[in-house]
Specification:
It is built from 10 helices and 6 strands. The protein has about 290 residues and is of the alpha/beta class. About 50% of the residues are buried.
Length: about 290
């Protein structure tokens, strides 16, 4: 436990697990999501005589939320209410879920066309943590987490992925509620106080604060340092490489020489499908 430590980067050397958001933290897929949301809403708003969609709209109403929640929140901001629809609605359906499915189709096409490379500083931070014996999980609002992790070459680092698909299947409230992060901690066999939440979105930071996690580490990829601090971040960095050293030189659970520890991604941890319900279950959900 690190309850006696100040809520700053020094806690990274004491806490037992890192719970990573995906888009904007490990991979620059937040940019792909931003482009997909912009295409969706600018086309739809123009066709319906509404004010144009902006980057500020993304950060205020969409970023970090489960996809259908993002649609609902953005429409509400323009004073629009649509029928909810169902998950299998056509992308052409004039429903909340139809629009969400249209956005997902645009995102999938962008990912197939261009792929994704993880942030080098995030990979350095992740691999150092794994070498030190720190437990890691991905907790994302995206239903695309597993294919994104696969495309980025990161899936084998994680035995636990709690995403939008898992949240929907199990009725777990999405961010800014803390429930998906609490589920990630539970699947690692830990409490919230044992874990660090690593987030780039105000909704995710707010989830970490609401769940009373051991530390909430904000990564500013455009949301703004002040906005992340106001939402509840304890520490904000521009890149995770800045806090690699804060993980410490060694831990009781790590090998004597962390550099000689088994490389991340070569372990025997099992990655299961997002519909599995074991402790190694993968799951994720981005807008």
């Amino acid at each position: 436990m690190a309850s006696s430590l100040p809520r700053d980067a020094s806690r990274l050397g004491e806490l037992d697990a890192l719970l990573f958001d995906l888009d904007g933290v490990l991979t620059p897929t937040a940019e792909v999501h931003m482009r997909a949301w912009s295409r969706l809403f600018n086309d739809w708003f123009s066709a319906n005589g509404l004010a144009p969609y902006t980057d500020d709209d993304y950060f205020e109403h969409v970023d970090g939320r489960p996809r259908y929640d993002g649609v609902r929140a953005m429409l509400a901001a323009r004073g629009v209410e649509l029928p909810e629809g169902s998950d299998d609605d056509s992308p052409d359906a004039q429903t909340v879920r139809g629009l969400g499915n249209r956005k997902n189709a645009v995102f999938a096409a962008e990912l197939d066309d261009n792929g994704v490379e993880p942030y080098p500083g995030s990979v350095e931070f992740l691999d150092r943590a794994v070498a030190l014996g720190v437990k890691v999980a991905v907790v994302s609002s995206s239903r695309n987490a597993v294919p994104v992790l696969e495309a980025a070459g990161l899936l084998d680092r994680f035995d636990v992925v709690v995403d939008g698909a898992v949240a929907a299947a199990e009725g777990i409230a999405g961010k800014p509620a803390p429930d998906t992060y609490l589920e990630g901690a539970r699947r690692l066999g830990l409490t919230a106080a044992d874990c660090v939440v690593v987030e780039d979105a105000t909704s995710g930071v707010a989830a970490g604060r609401a769940g009373v996690f051991g530390l909430v580490l904000g990564v500013d990829r455009g949301t703004g340092r002040d906005a992340l601090l106001r939402a509840g971040a304890d520490v904000v960095v521009d890149d995770l490489q800045e806090v690699v050293v804060a993980l410490g030189p060694a831990r009781a659970s790590s090998s004597p020489d962390p550099a000689a520890a088994e490389p991340a991604g070569t372990g025997t941890g099992t990655n299961t499908s997002s519909t599995d319900t074991t402790s190694t279950e993968t799951a994720e959900a981005q807008p």
